[in-house]
User: Fold these one by one.
Assistant:
Number 1:
Amino acid sequence: MDAQSLNTLIEQLPKAELHLHIEGTLEPELMMTLAKRNGVALPYESVEAIRAAYQFTDLQSFLDLYHIGTEVVITEQDFYDMTMAYLERVALDNVKHVELFCDTQTYTARGIPVETVLNGIDRALQDGRQHGISSALILCFLRHLSEEDAERTLDAVLPFKHLLAGVGLASSELGHPPSKFRKVFARARAEGLKAVAHAGEEGPPAYIFEALDDLQVVRIDHGVRCLEDPSLVARLRAEQIPLTVCPLSNVALCVVESIEQHNFKDLLEAGLCVTINSDDPAYFGGYMNENYRQTAHALGLNAGDLIRVARNAFNAAFMSDAERQSHLDQLDRLEKEYTQ
Ligand code: HPA
Ligand code: ZN
């Protein structure tokens, strides 16, 4: 299949994005607009200066900058505008379902109430259905903070539980293993929330085991280091635990040297339920289609591979079976068209 036909298929694929930090969609233009609107001083002179600062050496070097960006997001309308800008952008990529991470701890630490964050995002998600995009919201605990802080966060969001599909775990991975959050995840699950966690991005395979055993997650975010342990790969394959892989993020944060060096195809060939996602697209150089395109071209994925990856995402999504089936049916039609 030639490159152009592969690109056309990528555009036509209905896609589900399962690993997306809403603050990671804040483009420099909107960052400047919100900074002006709210009278927040940014350490950048221009949109170009913001983009030029995006040179990362690891996860922490990114998180430090990402945190500065969050300082301009203050009012419910800001959360609405940030979320709506993302939805309008990914509608162009034929994304049909999104699951967003938000972290309220970043904001409550500055005195912004959880309802401001959750209501602003939720209102945009409801309006996003007009663009034909279904959605779910996942509250991420920040793992560099204590479990007690996460417990207080869970208490604060439980009155808004109806807005949430699940809880996740984000921020600095090394030194903050999943087992640190065993109790708060157990309580969240007892409240009916699904559990996911970032593991095996920079952290070792042991962190992926902990996420499965101690947090009882139903998906692993990233998980690319799983290939270092064959017994882990066997388990992930047997249980078909979805991995929400973010190829351009892994390149930007030096988890891999280049997109050509990414192990995505090995994960796929190992029989794992892998998906492609954008993580923090405003920072890492691409939204969904760009992640699909660069991964496909660099690693030689074919039409069947890409359709399988898109199908994995809908199978792994927190959505009703009726909605899921309509997207899977469309993927079946594309498969007939492209692989005969
Ligand atoms: N890893 C951990 N925390 C994050 C990330 C990530 O890739 N993006 C935003 N918060
Ligand atoms: Zn992430």
Number 2:
Amino acid sequence: MTTGSGERLGIFGGTFDPPHIGHLVAAVNVRHALALDRVLLTVAHRPWQKVGSRPLSPAADRLAMVRAAVAGVPGLEASDLELRRGGDSFTADTVGELLDEDPSRQLFVIVGQDAAAGMPTWQRVDEVRSRACIVLVERPGAEGTLPDGWTAERVEVPRLEISSTDLRSRVRDGRPLDYLVPPAAITCLTERRLYRDGSP
Ligand code: ATP
Ligand code: MG
């Protein structure tokens, strides 16, 4: 049996195809503002709501980029939990696994504004709401918010108008990623030849 740590643990889920400083700035600032012990960047194995809308990079490549992006940053960790579970990635399952591991944890599910607006469509979202605190960060250019009556912590973070979608088209066009993506993650995606020649 776990004795319980009372750990304050952030879950920042995403496709991270690729990760960028918008993700990282949000994660470190939420960690600081809410005094979280750690924030897990949980890489979706199969982001079921995106499947079919565009080709996705393999989950192992996305995890490798997130690992490279957070290396050496205190309190940020790449999580392979959803890859190990396989199949469609539901935050409700991730919350369940993390609480099974240590029931004394306090969980904080961090969402950008666009993801927040989509939360009612998540699988078993009531479990997420009842078992974790929702943390909302604003995102420039994003519409929408949480539905009426939902409670969330709002954390002000520097507003960075950066998206993975734009970064993928930058690679395709040969435009620079510098200062938008950490250097180690740029090296990783270059070595893996991601986003080139009609790939995602
Ligand atoms: P894509 O353009 O492929 O959808 P993305 O940049 O939106 O990629 P995701 O992996 O879809 O990145 O997002 C993961 C989480 O990070 C979501 O909660 C999203 O709202 C949040 N997020 C992404 N970019 C930013 C940003 N620039 N500022 C704040 N939050 C962000
Ligand atoms: Mg997105």
